[in-house]
Amino acid sequence: MAASRPALVVFLGGLGDSPVERLMARARAAAAVDSIEVALAGGRYAGAILVSDGSAEFSGLPAGVTVCLDSSPFHYGCRLAETVRTHDLEHVVYLGGGSLPLLGEADFGSIANALSEDGVVVTNNFFSSDLVGFPAESVARIRPPESDNRLARALCQEAGLALRELPRTVATQMDIDGPTDLAVLSLTGQGGPRLLEYLSALEMDVGCYRRVLPLLTDRSAQVTVAGRVGSHAWRYLESETACRVRLFAEERGMEADGRAAEGKVRSLLAFYLEQAGPQRFFGALAELGDAALIDTRVLLAHFGIDAQRSDRFLSDLGCWQEIGEPFLREFTQAAVEARIPVLLGGHSLVSGGLMALNEFAWREKERDRD
Q1: Pick the residue with more confidence: 15 or 121?
Q2: Does the pLDDT value for residue 3 go beyond 50?
Q3: Between 61 and 323, whose confidence is greater?
Q4: Torsion of CA 198, 200, 204, 205, to 10 degrees
């Protein structure tokens, strides 16, 4: 590969064997291939390396992609360092499979251009990175991180690279963390051709999301947003929504900082939930606003509940009858039965997902006027 251009490195692994996990894995695979195609189309990348454990399903790969299959025990940081060494890379743009599915050709080009500056790390989110561009040799100067969430921070703090954070837009913040994000993309019609074709076949129920849309453009409405809400999202909500927003911003960066793994996550909302119970909790939220968007991962971490991924995804979908974990089952049922529309999900719901919903809400409002 030419040293003057970075290589795009995409990690794409399976999520599990349950139906909802396979659904998510196929969506992420489709989004990953779409992103690779977009990035390579601009000619600013020397090629792409797709690293997979063999369980992910992907087809129709564009030219210039090297596929590396490895089903051995996985450690994120070690596998990344091994990929850099094996392929003798000079500059890398790492992208998590299914992350940032709305990045365009110009976005990928700007990221590649930014790496022409010596000693920098480029990322979409310093506190929880999904995309990271960096000089390949710097990987040898950090402790191998457990996940990509902490990669940008490690490269800055341990390897001494200067941070270059991408502008906070829908494209740089929208991620596919769970089914909630698929519902948002399905509703808004955003994404690459493979992903949209797959979403069209799913025929997801987006009725609850449609109930939220008019509230975002209504000056008399109030929406509650709770979870890992960054300052960028708060500024966005203040300037781009018409409604009033009641915001509970808690535990940003809990995964990258290790607080979740160490059982140190604390949430004011969760303390109230513990005292009130799910029914009264959502009754109170109905008094506070006309809709609620909740990052449930913060609540689960507060309670020390290590719910299976399949249960978290089922909660996002509102399928409470199929959830095995008792608390999450009761909580999800109460959310579904609440007097107001409640959207449950992960970090992306209260970041890029909310931004995408708001922009779509304004487009819908303008269309209705016409």
Answers
A1: 121
A2: no
A3: 323
A4: 170
8 A C-beta contact, residue 192 and residue 34:
yes
Give residue-wise pLDDT tens across range 227-263.
999 888 889 999 999 999 999 999 998 987 889 999 9
Question: pTM of this prediction?
Answer: 0.92
CA within 13 Å, CB half, 200: 9
Q: Where are the domains positioned within the chain?
A: 7-166, 178-369
- Tokens 């940003």, residue located: 252
Q: Cα(218)–Cα(209) distance, rounded to whole angstroms?
A: 15
Beta-strand relationship, 120-123 and 162-165: parallel
Contacts 24+ apart (CB under 8 A), 197-203: 197/30, 198/26, 198/27, 198/30, 199/27, 202/23
Give φ, ψ of 7 to 5 degrees: -100, 140
Q: Which residues contact 137 (CB under 8 A, 6 or more apart)?
A: none
User: Side-chain half-sphere of 228: how many Cα atoms within 13 Å?
Assistant: 28
According to CATH, the topology of domain 7-166 is Spore Coat Polysaccharide Biosynthesis Protein SpsA; Chain A (3.90.550)
| Cα–Cα nearest to 316, from 298, 300, 295 | 295
**Digit-coded pLDDT (tens) for 43-98:** 999 999 999 987 677 778 889 999 998 878 889 999 999 999 999 999 999 999 99
Residues 147/80, Cβ–Cβ less than 8 Å: no
User: Both ends of the chain: CA-CA distance in Å?
Assistant: 51
Q: Which two tokens stand for residue 173?
A: 């913040």
- How far from 57 is each of 14, 225, 230, CA to CA, in Å? 8, 35, 33
Positive/negative CA dihedral, 148, 152, 154, 159: positive
